[in-house]
Amino acid sequence: MADSEAHLFDAAGNNIGSYKLEVMDTFWKRFMGLMGRPEIPIGDAALFRKCSSIHMFFMKIPLDVIWYGPATPDSHAPVLAVSRAIKPWQLSFGPKHTQGCLEVAAGTVPMNLDSIEILTASSGRPKATVIPPDYRDVVRDHIQVTRCSDTVAHLGGATALLHSRAL
For residue 120, what pLDDT is reported? Predict the structure, then answer.
């Protein structure tokens, strides 16, 4: 599991627990999920963002799934539903407006869960800003076009093309 975590809150805003998260952020991780794992340790969870349904194909253990909605300004996401003890080889769908889900070991979700706060490893860091390069220090070649009285000697046959006159 990664450095990310999800804090659990009840309706009064009290912290009632947390999970260490494994963020499923690539196609392969999202496809595989927890498939084939013999167990998921209590206190660990798999985070699926932008996910409104899951499958339990090829799973060996039942899971609880916490479906969450869009985050509020205080970064708490409301828990829309909890699917408890989903058995292997079943499908599960989140309610309307689901933003993602947490898959956890069956029986580990508190009954009074109201909202979650997801802190991923990247969310604690300030976002990188793109700074355009400073070209003032770069030495550039300046091309200067000047007229010369002796253009034929310098440019050969290109004089006529440059000055639009015949030689």
Answer: 77
